[in-house]
Every structure is written in structure tokens, then in C-alpha cells.
Amino acid sequence: MFISTLDLFKIGIGPSSSHTMGPMHAAYRFRTTLTNAQRTGGIPHATRIRCTLKGSLSATGRGHATDRAVLLGLHGHLPEDVAREGLDAIVARTVGQPAVTLDDGRRVTFDYSQDIVFDDGPPLPQHPNALILELLDESGNPIVTETYFSIGGGFIARADELAEDGENHSPESAPRPDVPYPFDSARRMLEMATASGLGIAEMKRANELTRHAPATLDAGLDRIWQYMRRCVMNGLEAEGVLPGGLNIPRRAASLLRQVENTPECADTLNIRLCAYAMAVNEENAAGQMVVTAPTNGAAGVIPAILYAYMRHEDSRPEQAREFLLTAAAIGGLIKHRSSISGAEVGCQGEVGSASAMAAAGLCAVRGGTPAQIEHAAEMALEHHLGMTCDPVKGLVQVPCIERNGFGGIKAHVAATLALHGDGQHFMPLDHCIAAMKQTGEEMSTKFKETSRGGLAVSIIEC
Question: Which of 58, 88, 104, 133 lies 20 to 30 Å from 221 when distance is taken between CA atoms?
């Protein structure tokens, strides 16, 4: 099992990795499929494209900008490109176009107001996040049909790419037997660390070097950290009310000012961590640039912990790489053995995974052993088990923004506790991940990013 750090941490756009970035990638991929098929003479004359959103993508797609993401993907835009200019600006000049122009110059009709269907029927059995893209002939009959699943963190897969055993495999997370340390469990990871004498980041780096040149890997890791830092700083400078109709004010900048004006406050660390994490998720809620870590809904936890460490502790620049490699090793295990998708397992798979990854990264850069790092990750994840994903009005705002702050605090506590132990503990990380998967499977769909239960239906409208 191999998931590259550079794939797990994606530079993109808010408000959701599974509901915005994933569908944009899927629509872009369908566009490429049509272009390639036309070049080989496999497509007769066609009139239009239709997209049907299923499951959670239908339930909360409007609040997560899924429809706009599909529009932009079909018109040849990818999340990182959109992040540079802003989603709203590109949508404004694209939404009225009556057709999609493919790379070969052929134009296919696509009416944004009619050709995106929000299907309230049952989800597809393979995954709750599905979109069906079709090329239709003049009679409305499908000529080309592709079904894509947005499996969390911006990853997508077709039905044939999903593993038969139900694991969240995708083209970016395919088995790679050629890596020197092919650990697919925390137990194997610790065994390999003991046998090799290497740390988790060192093993992860060795695996990455089978895919990336050293300079490419280092540049990629540095770029991820630079974008995370930029996102924190952007959020700390922005104020106002978040879009979407809940009238939620941005609070990160105010929180940081308060703690800076009262440095003697006993809760300085916690407030700083909340401010840093909330800054990122306020940017995400506003549809601005974020880094999936491992998802957009949980994008604030890892940057908050890493930003606080790099700014306030005795750190070295290269430690950001060690932090990210360690975090990615843990995130890859969680994605492989369970899920990072809120639509599949609830928020335990998003903020819970992010907290575990952040705890592992912090423990590593503070000198933790592999056993202590595994313990830190387990503690952070354990105390998110059962957490539901029930965003009010389908927006990644309540409870998501504050939840990232709490995830950061738990990550910090877990790393600290682990460093005060010897790495020996009762509950292995593998068992904790298995518990998360089982809990997610038994959790009602009302609590898995559909906004049909929990907090999402507890607001009385006057």
C-alpha cells in the first residue's frame, strides 16, 4: 500500500475536498475521456452532457458548491488553478456559457441550470459520494456514461477502480510492492522501524523516493508547508461574515488579537491553536485556497499544529518535512484501513484522522520514537471515535470550524502525553482504526454528511 504525501496533501479550494474538489476532478476527467474517445472516432454526433449527483453529493451538494465544481471541471479547470483566482470569479464568467469546448475544439451543450441533477433517491452501493456523467445523443440517450466516486480528500475513483473488498483504493493509492517499506498497518510499520533502525519519516521518505526524485520530493513538501502557512496567515488577516446564509462571523483574527493582548492568560496555547485552525477553516468555508489535510473539512488541524510548532518552538526549517512525512504515513494507514470520508464514516474520519496525523507529526519533530508516535496517533484518533458529520445547512461552518480547533488541541495533548510515556500502551492504532471503520459502518446515514440529523436538524427557524 502506498499513498504519496504529495497526493494526500492537495492544494485546492474550499469548501469541501469530497464535495468540491473531487467532483471537479471527476468532471475534468470525464472531459478528457470525451476528448480521447473523439480522437479515436468512438463518439458519433452528440448534443449535451448531463451530471447526476447521488447520495451525500445530492444531499449537501448545493452548500458544498458541488454543482459549481462540476461546471468548472467540465470547462477544463482544476482545483489548484481555481485557488489562484477564486471560485466565484471563474464561475461568474463560466456559468452562462451554453456549451463546453473540449480540447479538440468540439463543442458539447451543457446548461448549468438544467443539466446537473440532484437525485434524492438511494445512494449507490459502492460509496455514498457518487456522480454519474453522461454524454447524450439528440434523443437523450446516453452514448458515454462514467460513474465516479469521490472517496474523500479529493481522491476519486471509478467503480472498476474501487477494490473488491470495499477498501478506499484509487489510482493515487494503488498497491506498490516495489517500495522498500511496504507497511500496510501500524504493527508492520513499527516492526519495520525496529528492524531497520529508521524513523517513520525516514521510511516514508524512502518509499517516496521510488516515485519522486529527492529534489522534487523536498520541493513538494516545502510547497505544501508554504501553502499551509499562507492559508493560516490569510485566515488570520480576514474578517467579516462567511457566505451561505448562516451569518457566521469570522473569529480567528479576533481570537489571536485577544491572546496577544493578554499574554499572561493561562489558556494562551489552546486559544492560539484554535485561532490557527479556525483561520484555515474560515478560509475553507469562504471557498478560498486550502490544503486537504487530509480533507477540506479537517484542513485546519495539521496546519495549526505545524504552524504553532514552527513559529513558537525551537524548530528547524527541515522539520516541516519530517512532520508532513510522518503525518502522511499515519493518514495513509487510516485511508487504507478505513476511510477519511465524512460521507462514509462521519467526522471521525475527517477531524479524527487529521488529529491523529497532527499528533504523530508533532511527536516526531519533538524527538518521539516510532512507538511513541504510534501511541500519539492512537490517542488522538481514539477520542474522536463516533463523531458524526452533521453540518448545519450543508455548509462547512457549524460545527466544522470550531471542531478543527478542538481537533488541534487533542492532537497537542496526545503528542505531549505520548512523549511522557515509553510507547507501550493498551490499544494499538490498528485496532482503533478498525473501531472507527466499524463505527462508521453502523452509523446512520443521517449523521454522515447528509445534513439530515444531529445539529443539522436541531436549529429552529423563526
Answer: 88
CB atoms within 10 A of CB 175: 13
| 99, burial (CB in 10 Å: exposed 0-12, middle 13-18, buried 19+) | middle
Q: Locate cell 470550531: which residue?
A: 402
By CB atoms closer than 10 A (0-12, 13-18, 19+), residue 120 is exposed
Decide if pLDDT at 402 tops 80.
Answer: yes
pLDDT band at 274 (very low <50, low <70, confident <90, very high): very high
- The whole-model pTM stands at 0.93
290 vs 275: CA distance, rounded Å: 16
Which grid coordinates are listed for 77?
A: 479547470
| 251: confidence class by pLDDT, cuts 50, 70, 90 | very high
> CA of 1: how far to CAs of 7, 188, 291, 325, 336, in Å?
14, 12, 23, 15, 7
Q: What is the rounded CA–CA span in Å between residue 423 and residue 334?
A: 20
Query: What are the residues whose beta carbons fall under 8 Å from the beta carbon of 254, sequence distance 6 or more?
Result: 239
